[in-house]
Q: What sequence folds into this?
């Protein structure tokens, strides 16, 4: 019974994604007829999660050869406190097509220009709604689907964890890190003393996905474990002193062995 | 079945007194019997202090804040592995108990998933170990191993030096024929066991000859692989990287001509160094440890008469396995699929255990399960280092700490790259993974500093197969360690010394031989 419900829920989820993606593609196809083709040189996103679980997102784009309204895909359906840092040069708005949200950049020039916007995504990593897994881990999975008509030459997403949190493990990523690749698509670093993960992808075409699934937890080790270890060491030093004595019943050591 | 037994005391320390029948009766030297070792004063102190030392190092590494670039899991794995390494060396608890502790720590500290940890016991290297001991039991029970060993000793084994050299020659020939290092270890293992026994070294009472014999074969199996481009898959991957990233094609003969002389030279040095310095064999122990010496062995060989039917059947079964190992490149053409070395050994084990056709019953297979547990735990630790990215983090941090810039001299970079590549096998258990991470990095480094990539990448690639420092560094190491003829510390001692000699040889070759061949630039 439960399996059936799960199965149906998954089917509905897949159908929703398919409809949303189809609508987005249709929208883009229609728009392409009027919009002149350009490319997104870089799509660099820095997501700084605060203690409450909200995230301040800074999105930096380098647009090349853009002469018409440019649509940039966004992962977030809800965001607040939107700031256009390049308002003097470009007008930036948002549009929604089905479940897909876009940034619309107007005022593009036929050159290589940078657009930078900032906004806050509430409940980005809301731990009150997430299931706490074994060892105090929370799963944090983020998926970016490329729904822009233009190719993204360089995609980079940096997720800065809340203060005191650490990456436990990276379980899955797209692009994948396989034995055939010489370089990992993700790196773990520290930004302003906070642990961060950066995912990179290159030449993302329409429909391509960049994804990372990791487990994060609060940094801090068990004091009990520390106590047990110290006691074990002390116990050994006190009660295993006889290890130092030669056992009386031992056979004589043969010559020519290394143990004599 | 593992049973605890006190160490068997050899008859006399000075004169070879062992009766040949007792010595060659391998039933008396079962590997599955856990030996009780006698320790020196130094070893007893090591045992006493090793336990708290392991805990102290673990505590520092685990309880410190997670370093930049490392996951929390990776940190836990590094800490647990460091503890295990200290305990394996100091042996405050038996090595297999340390392995079990390591497995527990990996799971309890969230270092590696429980499924992964437990799954290691099903890995190909563990299977190959089990199958190797079944095949060895066949050769020992049928007396085929005894016959081959006696022949080898009566021909070349007038003293310890000669027999050790004969084994080196054997490993060199096998390396050119069989790419799978584990298969070569399995093939020569029974002969090593009998030759070791003839020289008074059994798993119950190993001596310095045994240490030299088994460790030298470990070195030979691995290092001779570096003499051939097809010696391991990792070599081929390195060549592919050099071709794709540096645009230089390296041919089989280029590789062999450049590196085989170095591999042979290194092994000759190791041959002198082991019995002469590291595990010095006393003069009286350099001869077969049997009453009557070599003549008794010759008589024994004559007494054995022509090969028995059982020996011929044993030889047939073993030949089938060896044939499958040697012809691996033709399997696809013949069978439509490739037979893995482990599956080839399994075919042999099935033939050996079949009623009427076979030669042994399950109870006659001498499998040291306690050492399989050691291998599984140690392998789990090594793989967790790979999987969590901890091994990569360690190596990359060393490179970053060196702060190379454009003003750096080629030879400084060359020496550092060779040394790092050589010793990196102590943190990587997979040659393939090590190659994939290190070689592209070295090529990129050369390009960034304006050196020809081949000059750094090819000599670095030559060191890929020098995986000799730890019992878990490669499959042959795991297989040979399970004979109980040497300790973890013995392996580190011989392995690290030879690896260091390797670094020196590659540096000298960089200035001379590789320059002559056009691999490294002129001074």
A:
């Amino acid at each position: 019974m439960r399996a059936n419900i799960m199965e149906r829920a998954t089917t509905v989820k897949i159908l929703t994604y398919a409809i949303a993606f189809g609508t987005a593609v249709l929208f883009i196809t229609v728009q392409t007829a009027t919009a002149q083709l350009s490319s997104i040189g870089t799509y660099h996103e820095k997501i700084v999660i605060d203690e409450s679980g909200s995230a301040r997102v800074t999105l930096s784009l380098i647009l090349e050869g853009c002469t018409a309204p440019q649509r940039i895909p966004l992962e977030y359906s809800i965001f607040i406190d939107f700031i256009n840092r390049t308002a003097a040069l470009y007008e930036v708005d948002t549009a929604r097509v089905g479940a897909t949200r876009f940034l619309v950049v107007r005022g593009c020039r036929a050159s290589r220009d940078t657009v930078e916007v900032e906004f806050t995504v509430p409940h980005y990593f809301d731990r009150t709604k997430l299931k706490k897994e074994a060892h105090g881990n929370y799963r944090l999975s983020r998926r970016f689907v490329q729904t822009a008509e233009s190719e993204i030459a360089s995609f980079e997403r940096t997720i800065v964890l809340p203060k005191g949190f650490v990456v436990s493990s990276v379980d899955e990523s797209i692009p994948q890190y396989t034995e055939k690749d010489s370089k990992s698509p993700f790196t773990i670093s520290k930004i302003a003393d906070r642990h961060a993960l950066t995912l990179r992808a290159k030449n993302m075409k329409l429909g391509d996905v960049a994804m990372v699934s990791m487990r994060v937890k609060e940094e801090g080790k068990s004091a009990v474990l520390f106590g047990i270890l110290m006691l074990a060491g002390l116990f050994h030093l006190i009660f295993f002193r006889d290890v130092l004595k030669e056992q009386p019943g031992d056979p004589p050591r043969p010559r020519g062995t290394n143990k004599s | 079945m593992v049973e605890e037994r006190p160490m068997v005391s050899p008859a006399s320390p000075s004169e070879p007194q062992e009766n040949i029948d007792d010595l060659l009766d391998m039933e008396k030297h079962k590997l599955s019997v856990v030996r009780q070792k006698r320790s020196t004063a130094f070893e007893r102190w090591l045992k006493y202090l090793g336990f708290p030392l392991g805990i102290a190092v673990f505590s520092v590494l685990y309880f410190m804040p997670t370093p930049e670039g490392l996951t929390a899991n990776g940190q836990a794995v590094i800490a647990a592995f460091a503890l295990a390494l200290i305990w394996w060396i100091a042996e405050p608890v038996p090595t297999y108990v340390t392995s079990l502790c390591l497995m527990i720590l990996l799971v309890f500290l969230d270092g590696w998933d429980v499924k992964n940890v437990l799954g290691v016991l099903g890995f190909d290297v563990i299977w190959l170990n089990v199958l190797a001991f079944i095949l060895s039991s066949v050769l020992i029970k049928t007396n085929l191993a005894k016959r081959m060993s006696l022949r080898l000793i009566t021909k070349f084994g007038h003293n310890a030096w000669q027999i050790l050299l004969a084994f080196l020659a054997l490993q060199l020939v096998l390396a050119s024929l069989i790419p799978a290092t584990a298969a070569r270890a399995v093939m020569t293992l029974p002969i090593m066991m009998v030759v070791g026994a003839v020289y008074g070294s059994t798993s119950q009472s190993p001596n310095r000859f045994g240490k030299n014999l088994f460790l030298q074969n470990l070195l030979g199996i691995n290092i001779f692989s570096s003499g051939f481009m097809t010696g391991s898959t990792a070599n081929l991957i390195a060549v592919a990287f050099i071709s794709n990233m540096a645009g230089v094609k390296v041919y089989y003969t280029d590789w062999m001509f450049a590196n085989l002389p170095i591999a042979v030279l290194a092994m000759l040095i190791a041959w002198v160094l082991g019995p002469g310095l590291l595990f010095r064999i006393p003069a009286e122990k350099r001869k077969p440890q049997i009453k009557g010496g070599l003549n008794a062995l010759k008589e024994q060989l004559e007494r054995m008469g022509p090969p028995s039917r059982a020996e011929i059947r044993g030889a047939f079964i073993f030949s089938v396995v060896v044939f499958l190992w040697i012809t691996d490149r033709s399997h696809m053409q013949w069978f439509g699929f490739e037979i893995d070395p482990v599956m080839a050994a399994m075919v042999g084990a099935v033939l050996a255990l079949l009623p009427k056709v076979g030669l042994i019953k399950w109870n006659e297979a001498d499998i040291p399960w306690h050492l399989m547990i050691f291998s599984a735990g140690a392998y789990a630790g090594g793989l967790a280092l790979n999987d969590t990215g901890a091994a990569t983090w360690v190596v990359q941090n060393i490179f970053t700490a060196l702060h190379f810039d454009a003003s750096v001299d080629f030879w400084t970079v060359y020496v550092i790259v060779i040394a790092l590549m050589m010793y990196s096998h102590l943190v990587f258990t997979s040659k393939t993974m090590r190659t994939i991470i290190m070689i592209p990095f070295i090529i990129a480094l050369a390009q960034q500093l304006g050196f020809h990539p081949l000059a750094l990448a090819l000599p670095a690639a030559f060191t890929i197969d020098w995986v000799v420092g730890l019992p878990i560094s490669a499959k042959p190491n795991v297989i040979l360690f399970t004979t109980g003829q040497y300790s973890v510390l013995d392996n580190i001692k011989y392995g690290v010394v030879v690896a260091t000699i390797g670094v020196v040889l590659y540096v000298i070759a960089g200035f001379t031989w590789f320059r002559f061949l056009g691999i490294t630039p002129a001074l």
About this structure: Residues 26-37, 254-260 of chain A have pLDDT under 50 and may be disordered. DSSP finds two helices and 13 strands in chain A.
